[in-house]
């Protein structure tokens, strides 16, 4: 997911996705050959056609079985509508964005692996710290994207298309950044282009109280039940072939944002959140 908020070095490993699940299994080896965990979806474990288990994938399943269970026990997510997430095949999980830990808790409750994007800097560090951050990001399924250049949006969309083309789940924040005040802001049309180009359904996801548990500036969320609601998938195949039509892309994006507004109960602001942040407090 693309998050326009600033990241602190101390929290760097946790700023991208953390797709843990309390129902996780671990990969075990028997006679030199890996065996799939019971809770694993083959496609989410084996991007492409190689089927090879890398060090990062082993770490992923260890974290999923350990830290994921700990997070579940402490913050006890309360979830509605999880049945709307497809058990197989590609889907776009489009979420509102209230806190950094949205990228922790939403994947935590999804049984399948959710893939996000993260800043390229997380993958280019040196020394032990650089190795640790890079290994952690790879382990939790994050994919590096250069967000500093002019083609940042294109790179993000290309990554999403590749992930969806492999039949996996791709997470995205249509607002493009965290809400500065808890309201829901105008969505960017990247989610529409992904849906129209790939034919993937869009599952709206409402994070209901993460902004209260982790206000802006707070590194660790307060202890409390995290509340998440998933809505029915949105199918936009009626618009296939109309990629690039800005009116259609805006209509699709607005439909996604309307579904998020209905799920979350947030007040809607027809303005980009990034613009509000640029103007500063009290704008």
CATH topology label of the domain at 76-121 and 142-279: Glycerol-3-phosphate (1)-acyltransferase
Total E-strand runs = 11
Strands of the widest sheet, in order across it, are 3-10-9-4-7-5-6
Strand-pairing-aware structural class: alpha/beta
* Radius of gyration from the alpha-carbon trace, in angstroms: 18 Å
Name of the CATH homologous superfamily of the domain at 76-121 and 142-279: Glycerol-3-phosphate (1)-acyltransferase
Describe this structure in words.
The chain has 283 residues and is of the alpha/beta class. It has a domain at 76-121 and 142-279: Glycerol-3-phosphate (1)-acyltransferase. 35% of the residues lie in helices and 15% in strands. It is built from 10 helices and 11 strands. The strands form 3 sheets. It has a 7-stranded mixed sheet, sandwiched between helices. α2 packs across α5, α6 (152-165) packs parallel to α7 (190-198) and α7 packs across α9 (246-264).
Helix/strand layout:
Elements (H helix, E strand, L loop, with lengths): L27 E3 L2 E3 L6 H4 L9 H11 L1 H9 L2 E3 L10 E5 L6 H8 L4 E6 L7 H13 L2 E4 L6 H14 L3 E4 L11 E2 L4 H9 L3 E6 L2 H4 L13 E4 L15 H19 L3 E2 L3 H7 L4
Parallel strand pairs: 3-10, 4-7, 4-9, 5-6, 5-7, 8-11
Antiparallel strand pairs: 1-2, 9-10
Helix pairs in contact: 2-5, 6-7, 7-9
């Amino acid at each position: 997911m693309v998050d326009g908020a600033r990241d602190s070095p101390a929290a760097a490993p946790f700023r991208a996705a953390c797709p843990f699940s309390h129902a996780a299994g671990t990969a075990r080896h028997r006679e030199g050959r890996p065996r799939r965990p019971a809770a694993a979806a083959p496609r989410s474990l084996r991007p492409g056609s190689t089927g090879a288990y890398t060090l990062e994938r082993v770490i992923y399943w260890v974290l999923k079985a350990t830290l994921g269970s700990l997070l579940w026990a402490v913050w006890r997510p309360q979830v509605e509508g999880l049945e709307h997430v497809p058990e197989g095949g590609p889907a776009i999980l489009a979420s509102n964005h209230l806190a950094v830990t949205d990228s922790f808790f939403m994947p935590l409750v999804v049984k399948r692996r959710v893939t996000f994007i993260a800043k390229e800097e997380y993958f280019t560090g040196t020394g032990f710290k650089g190795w640790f951050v890079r290994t952690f990001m790879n382990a939790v399924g994050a994919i590096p994207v250069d967000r500093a250049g002019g083609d940042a949006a294109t790179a993000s969309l290309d990554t999403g298309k590749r992930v969806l083309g492999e039949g996996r789940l791709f997470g995205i924040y249509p607002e493009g950044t965290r809400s500065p005040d808890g309201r829901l802001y105008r969505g960017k049309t990247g989610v529409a282009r992904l849906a129209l180009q790939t034919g993937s359904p869009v599952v709206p996801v409402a994070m209901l109280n993460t902004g209260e548990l982790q206000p802006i500036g707070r590194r660790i969320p307060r202890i409390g039940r995290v509340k998440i609601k998933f809505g029915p998938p949105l199918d936009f195949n009626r618009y296939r072939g109309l990629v690039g039509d800005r009116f259609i892309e805006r209509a699709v994006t607005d439909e996604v944002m309307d579904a998020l507004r209905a799920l979350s109960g947030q007040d809607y602001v027809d303005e980009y959140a990034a613009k509000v942040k640029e103007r500063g407090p009290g704008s």
